[in-house]
Each structure stands twice: as C-alpha cells, then as structure tokens.
Amino acid sequence: GTLAEEYGGLGERTEDTVQKLRTLKSSALWNDEVEISYRDAMRSIDPFRVVAVKPAMQTSVYAYVPIYIGLLVVQQVLPKFFPPAYAAAALLAFGPIIFAVMNS
Phi, psi at residue 46, to the nearest 5°? Predict the structure, then answer.
C-alpha cells in the first residue's frame, strides 16, 4: 500500500480531531500538562503537519506562476536585481507555508 494507507490516511476524521484539539487549546482548561499531551497527540495524529500546512499550500500555489513570470522578467530586464528578487520571491512563495508549520 501507499504511505497514506499505512498511516490510515488524513481524511476528515483527522482534521476534525485536530480542530477539536485546537479548540481545547484556546479554552481556559489549558495548562502545561495539557500542552505536553496536546503535542504528543498532534505528533501521533498528524506527524507531517499536513492539516496545518494544507490551507497555506492551497492558497500559495496560485502565487507560484506570477512569481515565476516576474522572476523571468527581472532576470531579463534588470539582471543585477535578480538575486534580491529571487530571495523576495522565495519568501513570498514559501513564507506562508513555513509560517504555518512554525505556528502549528
């Protein structure tokens, strides 16, 4: 089977569980002991943080084509500005994804 099948997939059940855990996290019952349990549960439920990254991936995928075209234009028209433009493009393209992973 595939890796997704071995992990039982990441269907609606996993997303629902993650949402319930995040709701608990924002409640008044939160403390250090619950924090440790939350992190352990999240590691076992979503080891690759797919649920956290999914919204960022779905929206940032539309930015890749305009960013790529913009980089081609900068490379041809203003070649000395290409290195900083490349760094800015990487930040625009992957920043939301990295932010989602770091804040999950």
Answer: -135, 70
* C-alpha–C-alpha distance, residues 92 and 76, integer Å: 20
Neighbouring residues of 30: CB distance < 8 A, sequence distance ≥ 6: 24
b vs e for 67-96, b when ≥16 Cβ sit within 10 Å of the residue's Cβ?
beeebeebeeeeeeebeebeebbeeeeeeb
Q: Which of 91, 7, 96 is nearest to 52 (CA)?
A: 96
pTM over 0.70: no
Mean model confidence pLDDT for the chain: 79
